[in-house]
């Protein structure tokens, strides 16, 4: 079956699932109102199916069909409650795990893994036995047994989403972990959590019914489908299966509906396609600005355990200067920038003889609010820079609202001004749009605008044009250069493309295998001007850009 056919089948399944579950819900709502009294009327015992009693009667003389329909409400309520316990507490636990420090997180994940490996129904039986038989304890027991599954999924999703650039951006902006979790992470987990919730509804239904069937769930005179199955057992053994049919068919229909909905939702889940990459190129000349060192890096070493990834590099950035770090993939450019932004991934450690930004000592943890004032980041992929679940306006104004305590209206006006400054068209409309409604170039302009909002001393641009269409690249580079001139803000540009850094930068640091091999003025970036064979090879592999970036700036 082709992928397209599979998708169509899943969508048809979703529609059937929704219809089935809707029917069960209608029965659950209406049947107790319409048939409660009739379902309690006693007729002949063990009557066979007939026009009067379509599925016959039970040992006490109750109409089996009416009791099955009436039992829908209690069964669905218990199932929904137990599912809600599993979802809410599981998501809470999984998010909490992500908020812990790495060691606590690791330990908690191992505990969750062990609980997932423990059979859920066995755990539920233990909990139900401890709490005593009853509908309430069945809900708690089955709900508790479901918690580890949601906790593990949430923790795994949180680990993945926390690597997204919009989360790093929020962290750099000083947004607290709880707010990051609630605003930026949970909305992006909704889809997989919904899929798991739908299939959990089905397993919870059978588990709740199983508990009532073995006598640990609903107690007489109340009844759910599991209890009706229990009562039908003697009839089944006596060769009268009809009594079983009502609850059994309804359990299957409700469970099938939930499973089909889960499958349909899973098929609709549409993982974001990786952005296509293109290469930029450029040419021109620039004057090297002078001034005090804004950034000082001395003997910076970044390690993963005992593996050294950045091996004692040193360089400086002056106030107002545009410095490029160039080198092939894996040479340590991004890690160097992340060390400067204090955003190194877990498991990596940095030490340096000196690592400073203006008066901030970056070798020790700096309060996020101060970091947010000092550094801004522009990432490679403008598609993943923004949270897809939030409107542009909400996220663009976040930095001002969190740090400057700026009111919503004033923050909006400032950001609209900033969007105008980076020449984004129709800024008011953009604020109302979601990230996917903007082109890559627009999103990158918006990112640059928001990174200017705190008037940072240093802007780190990590491959700012790599993911953009080739026609947009030169525009964005020109925009960065213009802002550098106008705002006097220093920029550290990370790129594997020597053409980009030559076009944009005053000075270039060339990295190779975690070391600085050469530092050279951008004006000297010619095959004859550089000293190292590695830099020459990079230059020889670089095409020229048609449009100059360092054109005069007229503002
Ligand atoms: N979290 C991590 N744990 C372990 N190793 C890592 C981690 N992040 C990066 N590395 C390794 O560190 C080295 C430098 O990575 P870095 O991302 O700084 O390279 P880069 O020069 O920016 O490359 P690219 O242009 O591909 O992003 C690479 O070998 C990479 O595999």
TrEMBL record:
Domain of life assignment: Bacteria
Record-annotated ABC transmembrane type-1 domain positions: 72-262
ABC transporter domain sequence ranges: 295-538
Keyword Cell membrane tagged: yes
Gene Ontology molecular function: ATP binding; ATP hydrolysis activity
Signal peptide: none
Pfam families cross-referenced by the UniProt entry: ABC_tran, BPD_transp_1
Keywords, in A-Z order: ATP-binding, Cell inner membrane, Cell membrane, Membrane, Nucleotide-binding, Translocase, Transmembrane, Transmembrane helix, Transport
Stored InterPro entries: AAA+_ATPase (IPR003593), ABC_Ni/Peptide_Import (IPR050388), ABC_transporter-like_ATP-bd (IPR003439), ABC_transporter-like_CS (IPR017871), MetI-like (IPR000515), MetI-like_sf (IPR035906), P-loop_NTPase (IPR027417)
Principal cellular location given in the protein's record: membrane
Protein family: Belongs to the binding-protein-dependent transport system permease family. Belongs to the ABC transporter superfamily.
Protein name: ABC-type dipeptide/oligopeptide/nickel transport system, ATPase component
UniProt source species: Amycolatopsis australiensis
High-level lineage: Bacteria, Bacillati, Actinomycetota, Actinomycetes, Pseudonocardiales
